[in-house]
Specification:
By secondary structure, this protein is of the alpha+beta class. The chain contains 17 helices and 17 strands. The chain binds one RNA strand of 89 nucleotides through helix 3, helix 4, helix 5 and helix 12.
Length: 433
Amino acid sequence: MINTKYVRDHLDEIRRAIKDRKSAFPLDELLALDEKWRGMRTDLQELQAKRNKASLEISDAKKRGEEVKDKIAALADLKAKLDEAQSEISRCESKIESIVWNVPNTLDNSVPIGMPPEANKTIKTWGNIKKKEGPSHVEVLSKLGLLDEERAAKVAGSRFFYLRGDLALMEHALESYAIDKMRKKGYILISPPYMVKKRYYKGVAPFGVFEDALYKASEASEAEKMKDIEHVDEELFMISTAEHALAAMHAEETFSGAELPIKYAGFSPSFRREAGSHGKDTKGIFRVHQFNKVEQFIYCKVEDEHKYFDELLANSEEFMQELELPYRLVVLSSGDTGHQMSKTIDWEAWFPSQKDYRELGSCSTARDWQSVRLDIKYDDKGERKYVYTLNSTAISIQRSLACIVENYANSDGTVSVPKVLVPYMGKEIITKG
RNA sequence: GCCGGGGUCGCCUAGUGGUAUGGCGGCAGCCUGCUAAGCUGUUUAGCUAGUAAUGGCUUCUGUGGGUUCGAUUCCCACCCCCGGCGCCA
């Protein structure tokens, strides 16, 4: 069970976050249950102490060769009370469990209070928009014969794709470019499992995500019928971002202070059901069920949160600038910040076909939300503290491809290759596949 | 997938129904003139009293159940590791 102490320790901040997020989270119910639980626990411990003492007396008497039948019989009442106390406490615990995992994260002071889209705040705009408008990446790529949505729909369904020829090549070029750059910055490259057990997934994202975003990769239906909680917790879910596998990686570990920060660059596909986004971005590779992504992830000490948030964001911006994609940074408002995050900055790049900026990635700090649930600590001069976890997209491959294609499309139907990708592709222009 | 063996503190290890051994490492303290050693304590998580130093209690032998006054030990399910067989990019 999660330690509810962390809720009491951050009570004012959590209460404020609930209000600012306009969340319906039942904090007072949780606190009442927690108080009840602690009282019950004290009672239980008294009973256990009595039982332990009596058991020892029986043990001693037996060693002396005395008759112990009467002593054992006298314990029947205590045993019944103990069983009752135990089942009452587990009923209370499962109620707490169902609530406490979903406590919203505290909010960073710099998060604008309000609801989206009005309250989201643009804090920076970079680059000159060369193409104010133009054809969509779907039009450009279809004419070049590099994107096959129809056959993908036949084989896998809507929101899947086959990339061909030069486009598939550019996909790999982007990946190699992003991986090389992250490694040069000292981030350790990680290829994670693409499936994660439910009990760890619960620690990286709130339950809502399971219905809206995740594909279940195992059945476990028998266990579910039997309400075998432990077994259900072994169910596998496809990762919707490498972040989740990277966060769970060090679950139940304690770092020495000297080991932090740990900086990872994770590379993996991401699988998303995109439930609730029917009708949005249905064409092309902007919003798909499966895409590749290079993700940055940092475990750090509490006091280093802002330092590494800035570092992650700077890295992400560097990618946008080297690819010469005009973009802007948007701080998500309190009402738009993910449940498990304390602060999120999105970057949105210019899409000529939409005459607007669209999200390409985001940088977030989860503070200790994930580490409390995954039990990841560090030793701070003898004191155990929960680590802070931060994550930021390096490059979201397919979405970036869409953006590059639109911004780099030439009037003759071909697409120029961004300068930084030329060495990886061995060509400056992509043509019919 | 099947058949064996296993999982005990950060690491190694004993115990096979009756308060969980011992060592190494780490941390704290003490002692000591010789590059280090010795001695003592501590080394899971939580509830509770106190402003605090500190105390009381519970909990911890892969995880969850069961039997029992009492489970590391017996029973059931699951997870993971090692070996063998099978299957396989």
